[in-house]
Amino acid sequence: MKKMAGFLSVLTLLGLSLIPSVNYIGDTLERVLIFALMLSTLISISALLSVYRDVKLFNMAELKVIAVSYPLLTILDTIYPLIKYSDQTLSSGLLNMQLLLIGYALVVSFIIIRKSKECH
Question: Which of 17, 33, 39, 70 stands 20 to 30 A from 23 (CA)?
Fold first, then answer.
């Protein structure tokens, strides 16, 4: 039962991450970024819930990887299209939304890092 639960969890995470990346209109790197960011987002949600419930779901090293990867992927997801489509005009609303997402990712990262220090 335990192995089946782990397998189904991984399968669900990969499936939920794959769907938006397959449906995304863009080049391969953009699709890979979308996949990685969605996967990182879902795992970050699990980490936040573990902090909220005070349950040790991840070890210290895993929490650090989650805390670094989520904002990093959010920043890459913002910067890559800016570089690739630099010849086009940028909507200020889009840029503001991306900056909010980066800020949110940094707050999530801060919470997860604080929790990883408690695990130490």
Answer: 70
* Chain centre to alpha carbon of residue 5: 22
What DSSP string describes 100-114? Answer: HHHHHHHHHHHHHHH
- Using only C-alpha atoms, the chain has a radius of gyration, in whole angstroms, of 16
Neighbours of 104 (CB within 10 A): 13
Taking the CA atoms of 32, 79, 73 and 52 in sequence, report the sign of the dihedral they define.
negative
Q: pTM for this one?
A: 0.88
Summarised one tens digit per residue, pLDDT across range 81-110 is 888 888 888 788 888 999 999 999 999 999
**Which two structure tokens, joined as six digits, stand for 92?**
């200020």
- Residue 59 buriedness (CB in 10 A; 0-12 / 13-18 / 19+): exposed
